[in-house]
Amino acid sequence: MRRHLPARPPGLLVRGQGRHGVTGLERLASEGERLLDSGRFEEAAVPLAQACALEPGSQDLSFNLGLAYLKSGRAHDAKLAFERALSLGPAAADLLSNLGLAYFELGKAERAERCYSQALELEPGHPEANNNLGVLRFQEARYGEARSFFNRATQERPDYADAWFNLRDCCAELLAARADAKPGGPDMAFLAAERDKATAMLARLSS
Questions:
Q1: What is the pLDDT of residues 30-58, one digit of tens each?
Q2: 89 with 147, same domain?
Q3: Do both 107 and 187 map to the same domain?
Q4: Of the candidates 106, 123, 140, which is a domain's last residue?
Q5: Nearest alpha carbon to residue 101 among 115, 90, 80
Q6: Could you give the CA distance from residue 149 to residue 134 in angstroms, rounded to a whole number?
Q7: Rounded CA separation 97/114 (Å)
Q8: Which of 65, 72, 73, 188 could pair with 48 as two cysteines, CB 3.0-4.6 Å apart?
Q9: Domain assignment of residue 198, given as a range
Q10: Which of 123, 141, 157 represents a domain boundary (last residue)?
């Protein structure tokens, strides 16, 4: 999943209520973002939920809260937060891709695919949307299509380890299928080279 949006981008008017005021809201938003950055997702959800209660009209706060929920395994809560974010402003590829991932975690593959496709309409090179749509195609045993999506994801983000991992496994499935049907030939050599490249990239990224 892509990095979270800043909790308070330039020009966003932050309004507080009661004793919290602007300073309290800024503190909660900044603390939530800091915890997200450090991978403490369950903890991040607490100040972000409080910030959303103070500023319910902030698309960015709802997006960050959705990320905190999604990365801590609370897919249903993430879906609700992302849907709220989507209702608060224009659609963005990051938002749609993460909403799709929440649907995927909830077992709603068709809705996930719709979100990924909408994300790619907005940003054709979006790495996560390409990778996630590739995962759906892989699960359907549509390995040729999956490979195209994984390749696009790695081209857009060369350090995207998940996409390289998926590309390697996809090439392996295609090689196995073609070995049964038509051994040898340039196609198999090309797939083997692509699989080996993905393996080498994974080793480099993990070192």
A1: 999 999 999 999 999 999 999 999 999 99
A2: no
A3: no
A4: 123
A5: 115
A6: 5
A7: 10
A8: 65
A9: 126-207
A10: 123
CB-based contacts of 204, cutoff 8 Å, min separation 6: none
Q: In whole angstroms, what is the distance from residue 80 CA to residue 92 CA?
A: 16
Q: Are residues 199 and 138 in the same domain?
A: yes
Q: Which among 157, 136, 155 is positioned nearest to 146, based on CA atoms?
A: 136
Residue 141 vs residues 94, 162, 170: alpha-carbon distances, Å: 26, 18, 9
Specify the amino acid at residue 69. Y
Q: Is 71 in a helix, a strand, or coil?
A: helix
Share of the chain above pLDDT 70, in %: 86
User: pLDDT tens digits, residue range 130-186?
Assistant: 999 999 999 999 999 999 999 999 999 999 999 999 999 999 999 998 776 655 554
**Alpha helix positions (H), the chain:** 21-37, 41-54, 59-71, 75-88, 93-105, 109-122, 127-139, 143-156, 161-181, 186-206
User: Does one domain contain both 56 and 70?
Assistant: yes
Q: Are residues 61 and 89 in the same domain?
A: yes
Statement to judge: residues 87 and 114 lie in one domain: yes
Name the pTM for this structure.
0.84
Let me know: does 76 contact 103? Beta carbons within 8 Å: no
Number of domains the chain is built from: 2
CATH number of 31's domain: 1.25.40.10
pLDDT in tens, 9-30: 322 333 334 444 456 899 999 9
